[in-house]
Design brief:
Elements lengths: L25 E5 L6 H12 L2 E4 L6 H8 L6 H20 L4 E4 L5 H8 L5 E7 L2 H10 L10 H7 L9 E5 L4 H13 L18
Parallel strand pairs: 1-3, 1-4, 2-3, 4-5
Helix pairs in contact: 1-7, 3-4
The structure holds adenosine-5'-diphosphate (ADP) and 6-phosphogluconic acid.
Length: about 200
């Protein structure tokens, strides 16, 4: 594997033993716009054989219009969107299915909302330098999110802490390295590839 080695941050990157070996986990790939949620999330879901849900596809049109116009979302704007994604997570949890969701989940209370009482939820936080993330956002074509919103994204970000179940990666790492390391930590002694492949539902349309 190329790229810098993966060094877990203290207290993070540990999947509690009670989550290893049981039903597949539900992963929320989180972080500010442009950090790599969609790229890493899609690839992780494909590797695990789980369904992938693109959170952006579930914003109401008013939220997309607001962000496109360079106006940051408020807690109220995010409320219904988080409820929708929390519903998908609860459904996967009930069915004991694995699931990967790309969702910024910037604030602690948003993450608590997404998790609800589903104990199999793990957050995968992609974090990095504002300048690097801005340049990746700027290089992206055909995306509604303007680089102008990067400051508000960082202002809203509440870094996950060790009392949350979090895998944390620097965005300087290649996406393939992040996926390989996360996959190994998430599956523990479970094997990937022998699970039923998640349906690619219309949720991402
Ligand atoms: N680990 C990485 N290394 C280099 N480029 C990356 C990495 N992850 C994502 N990218 C690129 O950065 C840009 C933003 O990634 P994207 O997945 O759209 O982020 P997000 O979904 O968080 O907004 C894309 O052009 C993507 O190809
Ligand atoms: O809560 C928010 O402010 C948004 O959800 C935001 O964080 C999210 O990242 C956008 O939907 C942009 O989409 P990308 O993350 O794909 O740039």
């Amino acid at each position: 594997m190329n790229g810098p080695p993966i060094a877990p941050s203290p207290g993070l990157n540990i999947i509690p033993p009670e989550l290893s070996g049981g039903a597949p986990l539900i992963v929320v790939v989180m972080g500010v716009a442009g950090c790599g949620k969609s790229s890493v999330g899609q690839s992780l879901a494909a590797t695990l054989g789980d369904e992938f849900i693109e959170g952006d596809a579930h914003h109401p049109p008013a939220n997309i219009e607001k962000m496109s116009a360079g106006i940051p979302l408020t807690d109220a704007d995010r409320d219904g969107w988080l409820a929708t994604l929390a519903g998908f997570i609860a459904e996967a949890h009930r069915a004991e299915r694995g699931l990967v969701v790309a969702c910024s989940a910037l604030k602690r209370r948003y993450r608590d909302r997404l998790r609800g009482d589903c104990e199999r939820v793990v957050f995968l936080h992609l974090h990095g330098d504002k300048a690097l993330i801005s340049s990746r956002m700027g290089a992206r074509t055909a995306h509604f999110m303007p680089t102008a919103l990067v400051d508000s994204q960082f202002a809203d970000l509440e870094m996950p802490t060790a009392d949350e179940v979090v895998l944390s990666y620097e965005v300087t790492l290649p996406a393939e390295a992040i996926v390989a390391d996360a996959c190994a930590r998430l599956t523990g002694d479970r094997k990937t590839g022998d699970r039923k492949t998640g349906e690619k539902s219309g949720r991402n349309a």
